[in-house]
Amino acid sequence: MVACKRQLIVFGGFHESARDYVYYNDVYAFNLDTFTWTKLSPSGTGPAPRSGCQMVTTPEGNIIIYGGYSKQRIKKDVDKGTLHTDTFLLKADGVDKWIWNRLSPSGVKPTPRSGFSVAMGPNNRSLLFGGVHDKEEEERIEGDFFSDIYFYDMGKNRWFPGQLKLTDEEGDRMLNLQTCRPRFLALLQLFSRSKPGADDLIQLPSSRPQCFLVCSERGKTSHITTGKASGASLLLISWQTVFQPFGRAL
Q: Nearest-CA neighbor of 242 among 151, 163, 165, 127?
């Protein structure tokens, strides 16, 4: 679900009962002025049925949908899961008219995952954090958890990984989030032209799925917090002074 102008747009999801399950790829809109639901019928070919995808709105009032998860039954009591890595644009075309367009982003894309979070940032870029990649077998499941960050540039239709950047009197110090180790709280060391000291450590969120990303009203600070009320942690990232995209020449 995502807020778009004076509407809440809902896409996909799933329903599971004791006997069966079903995944959806329909679109609904909830009008915040009239408090009424409307089923939308976009033209074009949209995403396959799924749950767990993430949605962000563009400055033009369109909606980008990325990723998701679905499963299908391959034999009795055996299901096969699918991690979706495709990207779609739900484009507004006048009043109450929408069009599906499939996007093919370039750049360094996030590895397949579910349970990640996405928020809109400044400069027409969205931010993706975390997630999990489950490896499923017939009688067990194992998961690889992530704590990395990716940017999606909407104008250039391009993915690229993020880095933390700190600037001080000694020059720029870069912190690569790709070095976070799954399942452990990462204490990552900043590198600079001078010898790193004990004070050059930053505590980042551990690898996890089902966290939340929220951008401030002015889009200058991003908040990363866990989805559980107990033991929740919070990381504040200032877009102006701390967080910059990796690869400024892109």
A: 165
List the one residue out of 156, 143, 108 whose CA is nearest residue 128.
108
- What residues contact 65, with CB distance under 8 A and at least 6 apart? 11, 47, 53, 54, 55, 87, 88, 89, 90
Looking at beta carbons, which pairs linking 25-28 to residues 24 or more positions away fall under 8 Å?
25/49, 25/50, 27/90, 27/98
Strand ordering across the sheet containing 54-57: 54-57, 63-66, 87-92, 98-103
Domain edges within the chain: 1-104, 114-250
pLDDT for 19 equals 85
* Mean pLDDT, all residues of the chain: 74
What's the whole-number mean pLDDT along residues 101-107? 97
Evaluate whether 149 touches 244 at the Cβ level (below 8 Å): no
Count the residues in the chain: 250
Chain centroid to Cα 7, Å, comes to 21
